[in-house]
Amino acid sequence: MKALILVDIQNDFTPTGNLPVPEGDLIVPVVNKLVAKFDKVIATQDWHPRNHKSFAANHENKNPGDLIQLNGIDQVLWPVHCVQDTKGAEFLDDLDTSRITKVFQKGMDAEVDSYSGFFDNDHKSATGLGDYLKEQGFKDLTIVGLALDYCVKFTALDAVNLGFNTKVVVDGTRAVNLNPGDDEKAIQEMKAAGIEIV
Ligand code: VGL
Ligand code: ZN
Question: 154 phi and psi, to 5 degrees?
Fold first, then answer.
């Protein structure tokens, strides 16, 4: 059985959002076409409290893009984004949400970021997505969403490590590209891990 995972298709990751992903809004028509083809559609949502430590604004003298150590792990600092119950955290208006049967939220712990839809970045807590997919008997996952070089990549890497046959549809993603070429690096990293890139 095949499931489609929509990663963080939220207003703050569009060009007019707080953590703009260039062309992030352009994935919607591609994603909506895929949504119509799958038995099961599941979404993740980046869902931060306002005091989240991944926000540069919550550190003195830090700017978005700076790298810090947060509780022992590398952390890129971001603009304030996807704050719980704000417009920026909502799904894009044009996204077909009618067939999403379950939404897994992540990034609620202020002390650790959560790029993957499966685990926090320290891999200590799970969102429940992996167990849920296994209980339901899904073996094949197709992943799309934002951003290719962060949450899509880490979701796909965890998926393949959990034993799912994992595919990423690149047209249904866009990258932040903090550094030019991060998109291509992410694609190579995913391929090397055994993820099918289409
Ligand atoms: C994301 C950076 C920070 C993402 C989330 O969804 O790719 N990136 N939080
Ligand atoms: Zn985030």
Answer: -70, -30
Residues contacting ligand 1 via CB (< 6 Å): 8, 13, 46, 78, 115, 146-147, 150-151
Domain 2-49+84-197 has CATH 3.40.50.850: yes
pTM assigned to the model = 0.97
For the packed helices 153-161 and 182-192, what is the interaxial angle rounded to 10 degrees? Answer: 10
Kindly report the number of other CB atoms within 10 A of residue 105's CB atom: 18
Mind telling me the catalytic residues? Answer: 8, 106, 151
User: Ligand 1 centre from 150 Cα, in Å?
Assistant: 6
Q: How far is CA 105 from CA 88, 113, 115, in A?
A: 14, 12, 11
Domain ranges of the chain: 2-49+84-197
- pLDDT by residue (tens digit) across 97-145? 999 999 999 999 999 999 999 999 999 999 999 999 999 999 999 999 9
